[in-house]
Design goal:
It is built from 8 helices and 13 strands. The chain is of the alpha+beta class.
Length: about 280
């Protein structure tokens, strides 16, 4: 298989980064009460994560827990995002997160550890690349998800040639072709885009005690069928589903892989704290 031809992403100022928020109205008024809004986020997020396990993650070895190609969750310290924001927010409009495959040798090289939660030689991972004001990627690419050591913006970086080899390995891998077949007529997700405004929102988020969260847990999800969302809100007649917003955010991404974030530590009696990681490409 040759190198995948990718269309140029249309990065924008408004990425509708947190698509799980603002999808529901109560009594025709946008619901602002945190507990109500976050329970809706939670319902949608659970549907995304459940469907991923039943659907697209089967292409990543989900049937075999010992050798699957992904982790149950990926953890990132809040400071990681603040470091990236502080260095790059004035240099561009946002940051993209590319899916890549690491083998165990790569993992050890960049982390100094073995990916002990799976025996697979390949592992789905993420590389962050800032986007400049002309919607072009900068030539610095950062490893940030679950790398088993504190993020160092001066060291956890790869140049274009190494990054491009990872991208090519992912896009030409038979697993990518299998995921694309599952998503048909769409292609499988190559990258996820987030604006700096949305990143700042994550950094500034506080819990019920008005304290910043320590870290974020990312979970793989799948964009679910629109009819499932409609049925869910038919069963909850107190809420008026924002149909146009959902269709605008997700219509072209059905069955594609995405990332759901959740603020940590959780508050048992507070908000659920889910958010969706930005716009999907291609």
């Amino acid at each position: 298989m040759g190198t995948l031809e990718l269309k140029d992403p249309d990065y924008g100022i408004e990425a509708v980064g947190n698509k799980l928020a603002g999808l529901v109205k109560k009594n025709n008024i946008i619901e602002l009460h945190a507990l109500i809004a976050d329970h809706v986020d939670y319902d949608v997020a659970v549907m995304f994560t459940y469907q991923a396990k039943e659907g697209i993650l089967q292409r990543l070895g989900a049937a075999s827990k010992s050798d699957r190609l992904y982790l149950n969750s990926y953890w990132v310290k809040r400071k990681t995002f603040s470091d990236l924001y502080d260095k790059f927010n004035t240099e561009g409009i946002g940051v993209k997160f590319n899916f890549v495959f690491f083998d165990q040798k790569d993992y050890i090289k960049y982390t100094g550890n073995v990916a002990s939660s799976t025996s697979s030689n390949n592992l789905l991972y993420f590389v962050a690349t800032p986007i400049d004001h002309n919607k072009n990627p900068l030539k610095e690419h950062f490893l940030i998800f679950n790398l088993s050591h504190p993020f160092d913006i001066g060291k956890d970086v790869m140049d274009d040639s190494i990054f491009n080899s990872f991208i090519n390995n992912y896009s030409t891998n038979p697993i990518y072709a299998d995921m694309s077949s599952y998503c048909s007529p769409n292609k499988a997700t190559i990258e996820i885009y987030y604006t700096w405004k949305d990143i700042k929102g994550i950094i500034d988020e506080v819990n019920g005690m008005k304290q910043h969260y320590d870290e974020l847990k990312f979970i793989l999800g799948e964009i679910i069928d629109f009819d499932i969302i409609l049925e869910h809100f038919k069963d909850n007649p107190d809420y008026d589903f924002e149909r146009d917003k959902y269709e605008k955010a997700y219509a072209e991404h059905k069955k594609k892989l995405t990332i759901l974030g959740k603020f940590q530590p959780e508050e048992p009696d507070g908000k659920e704290g889910y958010f969706d990681m930005g716009s999907l490409y291609p």
